[in-house]
Design a protein that fits this description.
Strand order of the largest sheet of chain B: 1-2-3-7-6
Distance between the termini of chain B: 57 Å
Number of strands of chain A: 12
Order of helices and strands of chain A: HEHEHEHHEHEHEEEHEEHEHEH
CATH superfamily of the largest domain in chain A: Thiamin diphosphate (ThDP)-binding fold, Pyr/PP domains
Radius of gyration of chain B: 22 Å
CATH topology of the largest domain in chain A: Rossmann fold
CATH topology of chain B: Rossmann fold
Shape of chain A: globular
Structural class of chain A: alpha/beta
Number of domains of chain B: 1
Strand content of chain A: 15-25%
Strand order of the largest sheet of chain A: 2-1-3-4-6-5-10
Number of domains of chain A: 2
Largest interface: A-B, 45 and 55 residues
CATH class of chain B: Alpha Beta
Largest sheet of chain B: 5 strands, parallel
Number of helices of chain B: 13
Helix content of chain A: 25-40%
Number of helices of chain A: 11
Helix content of chain B: 25-40%
Strand content of chain B: 5-15%
Number of strands of chain B: 7
Largest sheet of chain A: 7 strands, mixed
Oligomer: heterodimer
């Protein structure tokens, strides 16, 4: 996934002179996760550059460049560090189109590695997507594989609206199936075949990862892979929807599936209360009430800070997901 | 893109002076012991402008202590400082080895910067508050923290006083008034001002010290801290450790000026630029700043000039972005060597005593390590109970967390 994100950035820098990359350690060094490796050398340091350690400054500079016709793609080194930029993102970047009567807008992409599973403790593990899905004016994308990370990132960069683009850092080098002692690389995974050329996956479109008829599982980021393993292990035929875009989310794919299966389990890493699962659950209840055979289940991180040594008891694992799927099957 | 095209684009993007493959050099320091005079505790910020633009040293390149700022410490005090620095360096080496074997997930060493927290904490009173970054763990040795307890935190075992919640090096040590280290950089700097104002409100003889890196001084918190400290005359010592590198970015990305000290002048705060590898200079300026704060004249801002001799962390490989021998060329030398040379020059210490000290500390670290791993380590457990996920989120556990806690117990790997 590191290479596919790099490839998306490479394509866009090549195609559009207005695309600029900046952030902490992303220039000469190529980023702490190597996602911009080689790009400064290829495109010049006026296109790909390091910034001061100032997330608020990075967001504000992107705002200014964005309304002045450029298309900045910025990196916040860890999603946990996005909060000094929160004011600029929530009150400024998200709202400028509306508050200026459509005269100004910010075609900005804010990339940020998110989620747990790397022994990162409190401040290198959080998944703050719902802090942004609650902000009108932003689009929120959460990729999960090499293939969709590239296609979605290109769409995000081309979007004339600001996009928060979450990258599940646990999956940078391989999918994660919930077992920290057995972590494969992306090699031989069907979603690891990534064309070098430009391609897009539309924002707002979910992806049907597995097809089944007994239950609908909705997930994003790392949890897509954990849910996939759980479905296989459960032996129950399920639809697995990788939402890909959280805002605006793919209503059609979700409704069609839930109407078919009558059951639903939503899985995310972030805390349960006010997590994006709450929004999905409420909407599904409104839209599919008469098709539901059992209560919608949410399997999520706990409503606590993210721990260091005990992170496997925090992150949703396959056992919890399997139990939830089975519970939806009871009459 | 052709280089001709590149030149037409006027965006100014600084690069580090030297990158891998380049030969490094630093401008030699021109310094005379009488350059910077002692100042009155109630001086105005403007009166420190030379001290901010120059470089305050006490130890010269030959190990001689010179000038107004010589704190005239006793040989015993100096030997104690030396011992703590040696302790920190050997402790770091052991932790790095343990990290490589998986006994801890991550580590950050203080290599080349051992002097800073140790000299400065020794210049304070025991009730003074410490708001460190991750590169001032040495303050804990000065405050008497048990090394076993520090290792237990780093390896996340059942005796970790942070209960396995934070990454290694995120120490918390209330007894030593050493606040819990937080990963988001810079946040401690402005918080320290609040602690200092609370001490003042309570009319206590307590001063707060805090540090921030050259890189993190680009965060808003640095500026909030300076401004609040200035407006409310907080009894606080505000240090910027300029060790040249914020992971891969040189300090010329953190600031367009190559002097960090003078920034405080614009806030009306007295400022100093101090040789960060000079134990005596750091001790002396900190003592001065403490006295000024105690007398009610407010904050002092200090740039501590040094060089990050090691990697940013165990996840970092500096050979990718800077010449590997650069730290050896640093005009400030090595803080341990300099204090040792000073003691030897004045016949208070010998190479033999140094070697004996190193052996003694090595034994101390090995035995602390052996004791700590008895309580488990990250590679093998046992870990703190998963119940610690739910405790101390709030003062008492609300109903929704009680429910989730019960749910977790069903699935816990324990």
């Amino acid at each position: 996934m590191v290479q596919s994100i790099n490839s998306a950035l490479d394509n866009m820098l090549e195609m559009d002179q207005d695309v600029l990359l900046f952030g902490e350690d992303i220039g000469y060094f190529g980023g702490v996760f190597r996602t911009s490796d080689g790009l400064q050398k290829k495109f010049g340091k006026h296109r790909v550059f390091d910034t001061p350690l100032s997330e608020g400054g990075i967001a504000a500079t992107a705002f200014g460049m964005g309304i002045n016709g450029l298309r900045p793609v910025v990196e916040i080194q860890f999603a946990d560090y996005i909060f000094p930029a929160y004011d600029q993102i929530v009150n400024e970047i998200a709202k400028v189109r509306h508050r200026s009567g459509g005269e100004f807008w910010c075609p900005i992409t804010i990339r940020t590695p998110a989620g747990g599973g790397i022994r990162g403790g409190h401040h290198h593990s959080q998944s703050p997507e719902s802090q942004f899905t609650h902000t009108p004016g932003l689009k929120v994308v959460y990729c999960s594989t090499p293939y969709n990370s590239k296609g979605l990132l290109i769409s995000a960069i081309e979007s004339n609206d600001p996009v928060i683009f979450f990258e599940p850092k646990r999956c940078y080098r391989g999918p994660f199936y919930g077992d920290p002692h057995n972590v494969p690389t992306w090699k031989n995974h069907p979603e690891a075949e990534v064309p070098e050329d430009y391609y897009k996956i539309p924002i707002g479109q979910g992806r049907l990862v597995m097809e089944g008829d007994r239950c609908t599982i909705i997930a994003w980021g790392t949890m897509v892979h954990v849910a996939e393993k759980a479905i296989i292990d459960s032996g129950i035929s399920c639809d697995l929807i990788d939402l890909q875009t959280l805002l605006p989310w793919d209503k059609e794919i979700v409704i069609n599936s839930v109407k078919k299966t009558g059951r639903c389990v939503i899985v995310h890493e972030a805390p349960k209360t006010s997590g994006f699962g709450s929004e999905l659950s409420a909407s599904i209840q409104e839209l599919c009430f008469y098709d539901l055979e059992s209560p919608i289940q949410r399997i999520t991180g706990w409503d606590t800070p993210f721990p260091h040594t005990t992170e496997w008891d925090y992150m949703p694992g396959t056992a919890r997901i399997i139990a939830a799927i089975k519970e939806t099957q009871e009459d | 893109m052709s280089s001709g095209e590149e030149e037409q684009i006027p965006l100014h993007i600084p690069d580090a002076p030297n990158r891998p493959g380049d030969s490094s050099s630093f401008e030699p320091w021109t310094w005379h012991p009488n350059d910077l005079k002692m100042l009155k505790f109630d001086c105005e910020a403007d009166e420190t402008s030379k001290h901010a633009k120059g470089l305050l040293r006490v130890l010269d390149d030959n190990g001689e202590a010179l000038g107004d700022w010589n704190p005239n410490l006793t040989p015993e005090e100096l030997k104690l400082g030396l011992e703590h620095m040696v302790r920190l360096r050997i402790f770091d080496d052991r932790m790095i080895k343990m990290q490589r074997t998986g006994k801890l997930s991550f580590y950050m060493q203080s290599f080349g910067e051992e002097c800073i927290a140790i000299a400065q904490t020794m210049a304070l009173n025991n009730k003074d508050w410490i708001f460190p970054t991750y590169r001032q763990p040495g303050a804990q040795f000065v405050r008497g923290r048990d090394m076993v307890s520090m290792i237990c935190h780093c390896i996340g075992n059942v005796e970790d006083n942070v209960k396995g919640r934070q990454m290694p090096v995120h120490y918390t040590y209330k007894e030593g008034r050493f606040i819990s280290v937080s990963s988001p950089v810079g946040t401690q700097f402005s918080q320290a001002v609040g602690v200092a104002l609370a001490s003042k409100y309570k009319n206590l003889d307590e001063v707060t010290i805090t540090w921030i890196g050259d890189g993190a001084s680009a965060e808003g918190d640095y500026h909030y801290g300076l401004n609040f400290a200035s407006v409310f005359k907080a009894p606080v010592i505000l240090n910027v450790v300029n060790n040249h590198w914020a992971i891969s970015t040189h300090y010329n990305i953190a600031s367009g000026s190559n002097n960090f000290a003078t920034r405080g002048l614009a806030y009306g705060i007295p400022c100093f630029r101090v040789d960060g590898n000079d134990f005596l200079a750091l001790y002396s300026v900190t003592k001065w700043a403490r006295e000024r704060a105690k007398l009610g004249f407010g904050a002092t801002h200090i740039e501590i000039l040094t060089y990050r001799a090691g990697a940013h962390s165990s996840s970092d490989d500096p050979s990718r972005y800077r010449p590997s021998n650069e730290h050896e060329l640093w005009p400030g030398g090595d803080p341990i060597e300099r204090l040792k040379d000073h003691l030897i020059k004045n016949s208070h210490w010998t190479e033999k005593e140094q070697k004996d000290l190193e052996e003694k500390i090595d034994q101390e670290v090995v035995s602390a390590y052996k004791e700590a791993v008895k309580y488990g380590d990250l590679a093998n457990g046992p870990y703190p109970s998963s119940d610690t996920i739910f405790t101390e989120v709030y003062e008492s556990v609300p109903w929704h967390l009680k429910e989730q806690w019960d749910e977790m117990k069903k699935w816990s790997a324990e």
